[in-house]
Amino acid sequence: MQRDPGTCKLRAPLKRSRILHMALMGGPDPYSEPDASREKPFLLRALQIALVVSLYWVTSISMVFLNKYLLDSSSLQLDAPIFVTFYQCLVTTVLCKGLSTLAACFPGAVDFPTLCLDLRVARSVLPLSVVFISMITFNNLCLKYVGVAFYNVGRSLTTVFNVLLSYLLLKQTTSFYALLTCGVIIGGFWLGVDQEGAEGTLSWTGTLFGVLASLCVSLNAIYTKKVLPLVDGSIWRLTFYNNVIACVLFLPLLLLLGELQALRFFVQLGSAHFWGMMTLGGLFGFAIGYVTGLQIKFTSPLTHNVSGTAKACAQTVLAVLYYEETKSFLWWTSNLMVLGGSSAYTWVRGWEMKKVQEEPGPKEDEKNSMRV
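Now predict its structure.
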């Protein structure tokens, strides 16, 4: 049976919006179709998946450690987190526009949507862009004030806010088992805060920024789904608009917070090493969006969530080893509670979505038998 070409064109942006829904709800896409890659030999598919997952891990972990260096390095001594975030948005904007230009010049070699700034669309995207700016700013401020080892626990309430906002904004209820996993996450968060305080390394400022970052991540997922149709369902167009608006809105913040004045007296402002690290941070920020989509494409939203949880565990262990920290048994327990609760929530939501997907089957059979 042949498919209508127009239908095929619409299918890609629809899948991207469903990915965002899955990121919010933590379950697999009930409407997903078998991927063509499943027809490939097992060893080839396994190798592809291993490479994609490894690429995601390396990109994500490298970005966190590099941002920590830029935000809170004793050797760099740069106290300008808003400027670091602004520059990363600027790099992403330039990369998006550059790839769009290349795609226009070499349509067969580069696959990237055409990007043009429409002020009417920009005004519609503005509320989401404010949430996006808050999300990346609070993420970086959290990382500035807390250690990389505690970073995962500090931002662990995203799942809890997903459930809460799904009820408040979308009127979607959550099962008892999913709520139970959220309770485990909250318990792990508070135990982690308690243990950081007991070790004398707790930053209430960083913890507050982590909670705000978690809230903004959830809001970003919800509003992204609403705004996507305005940019023809294209994640890259939305990325372009978000980062262009962020660059504009960050400028007055740089003036108000005095970071431009701080940059004037920054001794490494003319250093090639500094600008190289800043640009690399921007490249990682751009790449994480691509490799996240790539991992979901080659695996599934459910597997992506599991991979993200395992990556967070590896990141915590690497941070403890790299910074030569000593952590108590209860501190590790808090991390395991957060990671275990997040994994359990992903599994529960996946099981529930699968159950919902299978339920309509018998009803359809009854209808068909009635017709006969």
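Confidence is low (pLDDT under 50) at residues 1-17, 19-38, 366-372.
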